[in-house]
Amino acid sequence: MKHYILTYLNSKFGYDLTIRRISGNAQPKLNVFDISEIPIPVFSEKFYSTISHVVLDSKEKIKQSNSLYRQAEELLLETIGLKDFQPAQENINIKSFSESFLSTGRLDAEYYQPKYEEIISKVKQKGYDLLGNLVSIKKSIEPGSDAYSDEGVSFLRVADYNKFGISDPEKKLSDNFCNDNRTLIDSLKPKKETILFSKDGSVGTAYMLREDADFITSGAILHLTVKNKDILPEYLTLALNSKVVQQQAERDAGGSIILHWRINEIENVVVPVVDYKIQQQIAELVEKSFYLCGESKRLLNEAKDMVENEIEKGNN
User: Fold this and answer.
1) In this structure, are 130 and 266 located in the same domain?
2) DSSP 83
3) 269 and 132 part of one domain
4) 41-98 pLDDT, tens digit each
5) Which of 62, 116, 146, 180 is deepest in the core (most CB within 10 A)?
């Protein structure tokens, strides 16, 4: 029955009843007592069992999805010799002035930690290229809060996505703003296989679109389009999310209070480039992973629909 209760609470009926019990304005909260007072519709054991079966099937598919994604990550790291690689832990690295500031423009000591040099050196022992040679980079806009509205074009921010997918954006851009900037808005909607890549906040998060988007992104998200035919976008997306690139993001943006990764630094990111057949294997694993993740979500929605339909039948 626990799977039924969870599904019910996530349904439109359970959600509405939960929201009504939230108290407080500055810091909204939901007390245990309030939760215990939410009424739960009672159905047959057979119905509970059916819901449980669908939810468990969803969990199994997400488990398989995660396993396939880890396999893709491990295949990349194994291919470039980083699967069991442990960089140095010491934080001291002696550099001359010409080797440090004159070369990089950076004076913060954290930037020169040996672990960053070691992982890049390891990657350069195999095939690699700079990101700027592999993709074209397009910037979006930051229209300002005056353009926000309850209705209009969805406005995707860094918080609205991660490497596994996109959530429904909380913000929208008003119809007036979009109509006044129609040509610009249309040109900024990312196309299929565009890689969204964050440069502010949670820097270095990559996600490849699997269809044309009907939203625009904030200026904190770059649009990367693969221009090298020898690189698969699915592979590149996984490589950008790997520890190889994440270490470079940490190094470059780490000296700021609010993390900001400059575009000239992003263009010079060292990206491992493996044999095309290996890329295909990685891409296949990634796509199977995303398919199973989608199936898992579909099953959860199916379970919610079943609960909502059963409640509506009971109310008629």
Assistant:
1) yes
2) T
3) yes
4) 999 999 999 999 999 999 999 999 999 999 999 999 999 999 877 766 665 554 544 4
5) 116
DSSP string, 260-307: B--HHHHHT-EEE---HHHHHHHHHHHHHHHHHHHHHHHHHHHHHHHH
Residues 6 or more apart from 80 whose CB is under 8 A from it? 122, 123, 126, 244, 272, 274
Q: Where are the alpha helices (DSSP H) in the chain?
A: 2-10, 12-20, 32-36, 45-79, 101-104, 114-124, 131-134, 175-180, 182-188, 233-241, 243-253, 263-267, 276-315
- In a shared domain, residues 168 and 263: yes
Whether residues 136 and 267 share a domain: the answer is yes
Same domain, 264 and 143: yes
Mean local confidence (pLDDT), 214-226: 96
Averaged pLDDT score across all residues of the chain: 88
89 located within any domain = no
What are the structure tokens assigned to 298, written together? 């579909």
Q: Are 275 and 235 within 8 A, CB to CB? A: no
Q: Tokens 């996530």 correspond to what residue?
A: 10
208 by DSSP, 3-state: which?
Answer: strand
Q: What pairs with residue 222 in β-bridges?
A: 197
* 90 falls within a domain: no
d(CA 148, CA 237): 30
User: Comparing C-alpha atoms, which of 224, 232, 246 is closest to residue 287?
Assistant: 232
Percent of the chain with pLDDT over 70: 86
Backbone phi, then psi, for 152, in 5-degree steps? 130, -155
- Is 103's pLDDT higher than 60? no
What CATH number does the domain containing 220 carry?
Answer: 3.90.220.20
Range(s) of the domain holding residue 12: 2-66+291-315
Domain count, the chain: 2
